[in-house]
Amino acid sequence: MNILIIDIETTGLSPKNGSIVEIGIVELNLETGSSKVIYDKLCHQKPITLNHVKNSWIVEMGYITIEEIRKSIDFRLIKDEIQSIINLYPRGVTAYNKKFDIGFLEAAGITFPKILDCPMILSTPLCKLPSTYKGHGKYKYPKVEECYDFLFPDNDYTEKHRGADDALHEAEIVYELYKRKIFTI
Question: Domain 2-179: what homologous superfamily?
Answer without folding.
Answer: Ribonuclease H-like superfamily/Ribonuclease H (3.30.420.10)
